[in-house]
Amino acid sequence: MGAVSRSQAKRVNSAPLTVMLLVPTGIGAAIGGYAGDALPVARAIAAVADCLITHPNVLNGAQMYWPLPNALYVEGYALDRFAAGVWGLQPVHQNRVGLLLDAGIEPELRQRHLQAADAARATLGLTLTDAVLTDAPLAIELRTTASGASWGTIGNPGSLLRAAAKLIEQARAEAIAIVARFPDDLDSPALQAYRHGNGVDPLAGAEAVISHLVTRQFRLPCAHAPALAPLPLDPQLAPRAAAEELGYTFLPCVLVGLARAPQLVTARTANSIWSERVAALVVPASACGGSAILSLSDRQIIAVEDNYTQMQSPPESLGIKATRVSSYLEAVGMLAAWRAGIAPVTLRGSLASLRCGEAKSS
Question: Where does residue 251 rank: exposed (0-12), middle (13-18), buried (19+ CB within 10 A)?
């Protein structure tokens, strides 16, 4: 065996840098509030971290996706349980993905989703089960909070859980992709604002409710894709909203993410990952009140100021010590400095001299 270089030895002898990237869903984030527009951030952080832990809201881009070998795709409720130290993440080679379709999807639109799943099998080599149809329409309704965040309700949650159980018990699904029929509201001011690059994703909050329910009940990787009628062409469409209007379905990115999503475990194994591995969290500066952030508030918290949201939960108001940065570009530089063992202050233009004083007695 050849000699180990100094850089290789340093990497072997140092702890791996594990970073969690969070952009809460349905809060109108300037970056991450659209389908897949936080993917460039994830790619940049993955380039300087050994392991990136993030969630579907960051990585899902409808027809767009990007394979990141060192990224773990973890549903939001599962991230909260992981951060609390209750669940661990077990990396996998591949998952058998079960496809769950809402009975409320019209036959032609349902066929479009089945064809998207077949395309993922034929072109990407994914392992999928036959689809299971819910025994009643899920009856999704959309809501908005006073702060402007989106959420929603499921009229028939029992139907959702029964279909998921059938996929697990009969089709041996190891992860579940859900497609629910969402209301079409083409004249909605919120939808028009979103298409033009403003406001909150009106679907995101309800999507989180769906995936949280299944993940909590079955402790399996889960993600959701909404079924919607195609929208009319809009020449003024914002670039960040464009990924959602390329086809009939949002399903491809979900299938890709779930194919390699880690299993959720309660017992430690040799290669399972637990919350103590997380060294740093990168979050929007105005959205630090989530469960995962509070659970890991003793880690290095990087609060990104220019990722504006509808929330008003800065780290200081919650007693969280955070390093504020202006942008994700600066956040990536901060992580690169930490990884190299460099004090970030030494990379700035001015550096104050050290002072000498007597140590205070206890």
Answer: buried
